[in-house]
Structures are given as structure tokens and as C-alpha cells.
Amino acid sequence: DAGITQSPRHKVTETGTPVTLRCHQTENHRYMYWYRQDPGHGLRLIHYSYGVKDTDKGEVSDGYSVSRSKTEDFLLTLESATSSQTSVYFCAISFDRDYEQYFGPGTRLTVT
Amino acid sequence: AQTVTQSQPEMSVQEAETVTLSCTYDTSESDYYLFWYKQPPSRQMILVIRQEAYKQQNATENRFSVNFQKAAKSFSLKISDSQLGDAAMYFCAYRRATGNQFYFGTGTSLTVIP
């Protein structure tokens, strides 16, 4: 299994509070991704990174920001959480763009 | 944006039998990649199989194989000799050859009946 961890694994927070989710990899892969998974939508890309300090938006980036200051860590921040951001969040990594993605275990976020 | 459609929200199969999961996609690109991912109850996404659009030969991986019909934009997954451990959600995914973004279908929940 690819060495990918996500923290926290579960979080409940209140509307309007900031939340940061962390993805950590031990594979030294170049690409890292954040997805959200919702019923009826499958997985949708939020943001991705193709190197340290190199990030770009995905399909559903509004309300989210990311940072990657080290190869192994990719942070997803919800500046002011809303109930519509209740979801399961997955981090993924890939060696390079043409390679398949390996996913972390997911984080279940509930915004009340 | 590209779309990926999985028209079977749920499927079931008897243990040791064969089942086929359907996936269609919409694209104007000629070069791209297609994937099947498995998500068991543990929620972790696991790559099952990958197909490059420029390859005419269908990919196989042990008991898993695909039927890739490029003209029809169809990419079905066949699971042979189904096992209880195959029970999971299965997601079809698409990526342009020159792009970074994956597009996923909504998934098919597979139940394996002992």
C-alpha cells in the first residue's frame, strides 16, 4: 500500500470555523490531490499540486484553499466552514501526471 | 467538462460467477486514460485496472478485465470468479492524456452473494 495518511480521520465542526485537513505521504510522489466524495456525485477534484508551492484549482475549488510547503505534506483549508462542505475528503498521490493515483483513507468532516 | 456515467447504481452477483459493470464517458479527445477504482467499506480507494485509449488491446489484471470500445465511448469492467472480497463500490474514472484532472462516475455498489 502507498504510504498516505490523512489527519484527522473524523472531525465535527461548527459553521464559520476554520478547518485544516492534512495529507502526508512517504512515497516522494510529485502530484497530490484533494477530492470530496458526496452521494450522487462520486469524487470531485478540489485542488491539486504538481510540486512544492505549485498548486491549481479543480472542479469544485470555491471555499477551499491549499498549501504545499514540503513534498510530503498537502494541506486543505476551509477558511470558514459551511454545511455544504460536510463530506468525505480524500487525498491522492501519483508519481507523475501519467501515472495512476493512490488514495488515502479519507476524512469524514461534518459541519453543523 | 468531461462526464463519466455509471448507469447501474447497484449490482449483485453470486459467488464464483461473472459480473460486468458498465461505464460510458463523453469526450472529444483522442488520447486519454480510463481507470476502474474499488472502494470497500473501509473507504480507501484502490486502483483495479487502467486502460490507455491508444491501446486497442483490452487491459486485464487477474480476474479483472475491461471491454474498451473507443468508438462507443464505453469502458466496462468484468469480474470473473467473483469473491466475497470483491464486494465494494466501483468507480470508473477518466483523465485526458494532457490533463491533470480525473473525472469520476457516481459509482456502482457491488454485492456478492455467498
What does this protein structure show overall?
The complex is a heterodimer of chains A (112) and B (114). With 112 residues, chain A is mostly beta strands. Chain A has one domain: Immunoglobulins (Immunoglobulin-like), CATH 2.60.40.10. Chain A has strands at 4-7, 10-13, 19-25, 31-38, 42-51, 54-57, 64-70, 73-78, 87-94, 102-103, 107-111. In chain A, the strands form two sheets. In chain A, strands 2, 4, 5, 6, 9, 10 and 11 form a seven-stranded mixed sheet that branches. Chain A has a four-stranded antiparallel sheet with strand order 1-3-8-7, with no helix packed on it. Chain A is globular. Chain B is mainly β and 114 residues long. Chain B has one domain (3-113): Immunoglobulins (Immunoglobulin-like, Sandwich). Chain B is 0% helix and 54% strand. Chain B is built from no helices and twelve strands. In chain B, strands 2, 5, 6, 10, 11 and 12 form a six-stranded mixed sheet that branches. In chain B, strands 3-9-8-7 form a four-stranded antiparallel sheet, with no helix packed on it. In chain B, strands 1-4 form a two-stranded antiparallel sheet. In chain B, a hairpin with a 2-residue loop joins β7 (60-61) and β8. Chain B starts with a strand and ends with a strand. The chains are: A mainly beta (112), B mainly beta (114).
Gist?
The complex is a heterodimer of chains A (112) and B (114). By secondary structure, chain A is mainly β.
